[in-house]
Amino acid sequence: MTITFHGAAQNVTGSKHLIQLQSGTQILLDCGMFQGLGEETDGLNEHFGFRPDKVNYLILSHAHIDHCGLIPRLVAEGFKGTIYSTAPTMDLARILLNDSAHIQEQDAEFSNKNRARKGLPLVDPLYTEEDVMETMRLFKIVEYNEDFEIDPRIKLKFTDAGHILGSAAVHLTIIDEGKEYRITFSGDVGRYGDPLLQSPQTFDQADFILLESTYGDSLHKDLEAIEGQLQEVIQETCVIKKGKLIIPAFSVGRTQELLYALNALEIKGTLPDLAYYVDSPLSEKATNVLKEHTEVFNKKVKEVLKSDDDVFHFKGLKFIQSVEESKALNEDPRPCVIISSSGMAEAGRVKHHIKNNVENSKNTILIVGYCEPSSLGGRLVAGARVVRIFGDEFDVRADVRVIKSMSAHGDYEDLLRFLSCQDPKEVKKIFLVHGEYDVQQIFRQKLVDAGFSTVIIPEQHQSEYL
């Protein structure tokens, strides 16, 4: 049996890991889109490195685009197998993939107008909304902690990974050539003590583990401080300086955490009286999906729900739908808070908000999650004084702040705690995925110190025998 790492190998996007049995059966773990890698991005998304029509099963850990975003292209190129996920992941994937397809088609149409004028060949979108419809027909729901038989040789179990709504760690028991293999794929591991979700679950002993490592070199600050940090930034920017607070936030997970924290401030009576905008139709849809799956909430949130039937709504909040309304926010001089996707500020409406506000020293851009270093968000975090947006250069005069503890990814203590249910002596190999190489080297040493003898950092398209 072999496993080949076709994405999220020494970087944090494009999650894609292919298991091949001696019989020829192929199991794909995730099929994510590469994001924020500059000029390389398009080429990486156009070529899988394997034949989609040869894949028998796809197991999806969760619905973030860097884990599910290329599934419709996989289907368009010949995949006809079954896609296994939790029910919330399927619900989120439907809205996220439809949104992604709409963007692909719009981008292709815009590009082709320019290319036609220049006599260049036209380009196709990565996939269409029709491809998404076909994709959704292939989904099969598997509940958390259900022992599910994919076929007589392959058994699957999901445990809650605590990362976003529906996120799961994937556990496979595979019989290949008479030998049993116990394989765990962490997906993305959440934090213990998450403001909204339950903590990651323990899981049965594994022989081989694919482990995410996004924050393998970091410790997040106290989770309880998030509300206070938000209030401080809002007070300084919007109340004292009379400026705008722009928050790039992923539509799934981070936006809902922000709304929950702001609602908590209102309950305490300390939320500044301002206009709060969520400028992302997708975020509103994702928030509604989360409201439909209250079973994933932790005990604290369930307790709040007894006295507050909507923990994501508060005075002054408005969801923005139309492009015209979004543009109007940039023409309105009044102080306000704008939460908008994407989280890395690489695309979407937030990029326009940053362009229109980054040169005003009254304003603040608040980064609340991981940003790939070459993304716009990553460049702002790194302290760039000039940024290029839509082909033009802008001086960074706005304040740039970071609340690192809001990441939906666990830090190295969380990751080590996630592994604490394992006997290191029985784990033959750990493969570090979904992390920057420098971070992975640091985290590898922490794992070795914890007793895991063989920790491998695979390269893109590298194959390993199990």
Automatic annotation (TrEMBL):
Domain Metallo-beta-lactamase per the UniProt entry, residue ranges: 13-230
Top-level lineage group: Bacteria
Keywords for this protein: Hydrolase
Domain Beta-Casp: 255-380
Classification via Pfam families: Beta-Casp, Lactamase_B, RMMBL
Gene3D superfamilies: 3.40.50.10890, Ribonuclease Z/Hydroxyacylglutathione hydrolase-like
The name this protein goes by in its record: MBL fold metallo-hydrolase RNA specificity domain-containing protein
Organism name: Paradesertivirga mongoliensis
